[in-house]
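User: Please work through this fold.
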Amino acid sequence: MSERPLVIHASKGERPLHAFGEEVHFYLTGEDTEGRLTQWLEITPPDGGPPLHYHEGEDEWFHVLEGRVSFYGDGQWTEVGAGARVWAPRGTIHTFKNTGDIPSRMLLATMPSGFEIFFAKCADEFAKPDGPDMPCVLKIAAEHGIHFVDF
């Protein structure tokens, strides 16, 4: 295990991935962090957001950079703006929705890493000319310990 800091320059060329109506730019992956962390920028259109879900193996952290976002957790919705941070421990049912009229921008992280692999596989499904095969997407999610509720 490396005990040196990792510097990733802004010129590192990450390509955006698209799935579930989201645009995602991965900044740190398991490859960068030896499996400890995945970090990304998520851009969500108005009224967009993922289905209600939970993660078996990852804790998830959100930092709202721009826009208005409502988060669901512990049985209730809470709307927040830029600067708000949300913690979703593994196993908790949660989701979010862009409740503003501009795309929201959030910095997200999951610990440990692996979300980037799940999302890349889903992006491949969503990129198909006829759209995604949703049973396949659900299978990919289950293989990564991500479960959609009432989907």
The longest helix spans residues 115-126. The first strand starts at residue 17 and ends at 19. The radius of gyration is 15 Å.
